[in-house]
Amino acid sequence: xxxxxxxxxxxxxxxxxxxxxxxxxxxxxxxxxxxxxxxxxxxxxxxxxxxxx
Length: 53
Hints:
By secondary structure, this protein is mostly helical. It has one domain (3-52). The protein has three helices and no strands. Helix 2 packs antiparallel against helix 3. The longest helix has 16 residues, at 37-52. The protein starts with a helix and ends with a helix. 2% of the residues are buried.
C-alpha cells in the first residue's frame, strides 16, 4: 500500500469515532479486507448502533 492510501485510511479510521471503538473498527476492517461481508455485517451494525447512541 502506498504512503498516500495508508495515510488516508488512518485518517478515515480516526474520524470514525473515539478510541474505545478502535478494536471493533480494526476487526471490521480486517473482515472487509478478506471479503467476509457476511461476518462483517453484524459487527458493522453493532458499531453503528454504539456510535449513534
